[in-house]
Amino acid sequence: MYRSAHVDTFARDHLPPPDEWPELRFELPELRYPDRLNCAAELLDHTDPARPAFHTPGGATWTYGELRARVDRIAHVLTGDLGVVPGNRVLLRGPTTPWLAACWLAVLKAGAIAVTVLAQQRPHELATLCEIALVRHALCDIRAVDDLAKADIPGLRITTYGGDGADDLLGRPAPGTPYPAVDTAADDVALIAFTSGTTGHPKGCMHFHRDVLAIADTFSRHVLRPRADDVFTGSPPLGFTFGLGGLVVFPMRAGASSLLLEQAGARQLLPAIAEHRVSVLFTAPTAYRAMLEQLDGHDVSSLRRCVSAGENLPAATWRAWHERTGVRIINGIGATELLHIFVSAADDAVRPGTTGVPVPGWQARVQDTHGAPVPDGEPGLLAVRGPVGCRYLADPRQRGYVRGGWNITGDTYVREPDGYFRYVARADDMIISAGYNIAGPEVEDALLRHPDVVEAAVVGRADEARGQVVVAYTVVREGAPREPEPLRAFLKAELAPYKCPREFVFLDALPRTATGKLQRFRLRDEGDRQ
């Protein structure tokens, strides 16, 4: 490892031991980065300052020069008034706006570590993330500060932006001079992205400055192939690495621009595409299906690239979108552990019903539970390696995700004889609904905090529109009402809305083995028969 610029060495001190890392591969010439690298400076400093960087629904546009000036000002406030030092973790929370992106860039330029979370996450969820990453600073949109304040996180200094007070981030005094980027090492941690495991306890995925550029220099450069005149937009928030790459890193690496939408459902995306002449769209299969139903009357002729990830893309959805728009969706699979997409295909290489082939710079194979490759046509575990790898923050689950130098994504795949990879199913208990990863046990834990709930089991049920929906099998105390609405209302105060069950099934008892182990498969089978 290179000489770190971090004064606060918490992140580097809590990297997995080297023998638990996956094998990292930098075979492409563009992946051979210098020892010293600050990815924010790389993204900001190589584009004509007069070119557009970010657009807003209201019609405002930030040029690269304006973005750089605002990032530098925030970085001055961070390291001056707020006392942030290189290596400190800084939580970022708010809807998808240019200011949130500017805060992210400023944190990295100042040598600190960005921990971007979802604006939907509830107080106890936020408290858990801050405890794991030992977060002591937060930059939060004034409109999203209430739940963060309610989390009552010890030692956390919250600085809001978007308000009109003198203590607001944007109202604090700061030099109007350029901020010299901290001379970070290429392998200094730049961000911690959280993902839930099947236990529901979040895992912090640590990614380096070079990793941020590597996802742009592999998937974006070789598969997406953006142009400087492209306008990007999409639905994933910046708290998801799918959104961070697709809406900030990829357009900036290409000198292109991005339309950042606070609301990005089908009803908002379709008119936004027409109004802003969007050419590159990032969203999940669920959104493509929803947009197909509302496509009439909307001009999407500006689209030239559509990217789908977050859940499996059905061949029928691909064909329907292609028939209606003429655009071939670029399907892909990525993971928070690997930052972005590593298997994909575009243009004439697309095979509907498959995910694609390894992205240049990456390798993939299908193997059995012992780590041996399985023959083409047989299902097994997807294993991946490339320039980015899984490095959990002080988490024993590292040993399960990385085996024999490969990242094991938890997906069951088949490699076809022609080399294309076809998705089969998740290999664990994760529920994937409308592109969101939802850990059933986390929802169960929240349900069990309700005084009337005795037992709970949460599983995914196949759903045509969303891929899966969350179903809660629940046992309540004797005499308590078997009504879903009180439980739904309770959970909405405990969990982000996308995690809340769509359906409640009330049982007298959950199916268990003779030793008391919950038989989740019986609940899944029952749901699939309905």
UniProtKB/TrEMBL annotation:
Annotated AMP-binding enzyme C-terminal domain residues: 442-517
Q: Gene3D superfamilies this protein is in?
A: 3.30.300.30, N-terminal domain of ligase-like
Q: Is Protease included in the keywords of this UniProt record?
A: no
Give the UniProt keywords, A-Z.
Ligase
Gene Ontology MF term list: acid-thiol ligase activity
One Gene Ontology biological process: secondary metabolite biosynthetic process
Source taxon at top rank: Bacteria
Q: Where is the AMP-dependent synthetase/ligase domain?
A: 48-387
- Spell out the PANTHER family in the cross-references: ACETYL-COA SYNTHETASE, ANTHRANILATE--COA LIGASE
Name of the protein in its database record? 2-aminobenzoate-CoA ligase
Provenance organism: Streptomyces yokosukanensis
* High-level lineage: Bacteria, Bacillati, Actinomycetota, Actinomycetes, Kitasatosporales
